[in-house]
Write a structure and sequence with these properties.
- The longest helix has 18 residues, at about 190-205.
- Mean pLDDT is about 90; it is low at about 1-15.
- The chain has helices at about 1-10, 60-65, 90-100, 115-125, 130-145, 160-170, 190-205; strands at about 15-30, 30-45, 50, 75-80, 80-85, 100-105, 175-180, 210-215, 225-230, 235-240.
- The chain has a six-stranded mixed beta sheet, with helices on both faces. The chain has a four-stranded antiparallel beta sheet with strand order 2-1-4-5.
- By secondary structure, it is of the alpha/beta class.
- The protein has one domain (about 1-240): Rossmann fold.
- The protein contains seven helices and ten strands.
- Bound molecules: adenosine-5'-triphosphate and magnesium ion (MG).
Length: about 240
């Protein structure tokens, strides 16, 4: 794991993600959908950034590009100094595994595993030794306030607690970038706001660059940087919001 971390930290760019004239067009047979129509902008390193826009505006498409799940149709996406369009499928998957952690709207926890095992799992996949896995997974559960729920399975946890487990799981490998696509969409307003604050706290604690998407403009006051998108275009960018 140390190799992965050192490698990520060697890229000391002040910019975590740089988008230059990015477009994404989906093709289904003869039908084309222009999901992103020329987006340029920088997501600063170690920022807590938010992408806000209505349904269908292109948030998930944009996060998929930033998260190296997909590549742009035209334009360039650079993540930690690497142009992702230049990576072939395997290299893209490898880059993603090393550098990016994900938090999903529907939590996506493994139901038969305990909270602890869900958090430990990504470390098991990359061959981290047992003692180190235990230390890291317990530290992450502690960081998200779930030290006492580590043995519980997802169906024994509340929505907010499930999302806390998912945040711990996304961060356990210490990725340079964590992406959360509408992480509060399945939570009530109060729990959602608490989850955003928790994400911000762990973002500063672990010096991660954190990007989340939402359709809720009220969450803007919680973010360092806000990118407003509509119909696949960046229509506003607010930097350094007052906390
Ligand atoms: N795989 C796909 N094939 C074809 N069109 C797609 C595909 N994925 C998304 N789209 C279209 O691209 C546009 C942007 O979709 P996207 O999912 O990025 O929006 P979103 O902002 O995440 O919306 P929501 O808030 O509902 O999640 C929409 O018009 C959508 O219908
Ligand atoms: Mg979406």
């Amino acid at each position: 794991m140390t190799d992965v971390l050192d490698d990520a930290r060697d890229h000391r760019h002040a910019t975590a993600v740089r988008l230059t004239e990015v477009t994404k067009t989906y093709r289904a047979g003869t039908v084309e959908v222009a999901a992103l129509r020329g987006i340029s902008g920088d997501i600063p390193l170690r920022s807590f950034s938010m992408i806000v826009g209505p349904s269908g505006s292109g948030k998930t498409t944009l996060l998929n590009l930033v998260g190296c799940i997909d590549v742009p149709s035209t334009g360039t996406v650079e993540v930690c100094g690497q142009r992702i369009g230049e990576l072939k499928d395997n290299a893209l998957a490898d880059f993603r595994a090393r550098h990016v952690g994900f938090v999903f709207q529907n939590f996506s926890l493994v139901p038969v595993l305990s909270a602890y095992e869900n958090v430990e799992y990504p470390l098991l996949l990359i061959g981290v030794p047992a003692a180190k896995r235990r230390e890291r997974a317990l530290a992450m559960l502690e960081a998200v306030g779930l030290a006492n729920q580590s043995r519980q399975r997802p169906n024994e946890l509340s929505g907010g607690q499930k999302q806390r487990v998912a945040i711990a799981r996304a961060l356990v490998k210490e990725p340079s970038l964590v992406l959360a696509d509408e992480p509060t969409a399945n939570l009530d307003t109060e729990t959602g706001a608490a989850i955003i604050d928790l994400m911000h706290r762990v973002q500063s604690q672990f010096h991660t660059t954190f990007v989340f998407s939402t359709h809720d403009p009220h969450l803007m006051s919680h973010a360092d940087e806000t990118f407003v998108i509509r119909d696949g275009r960046l229509v506003d960018h607010k930097a350094g919001a007052v906390q």
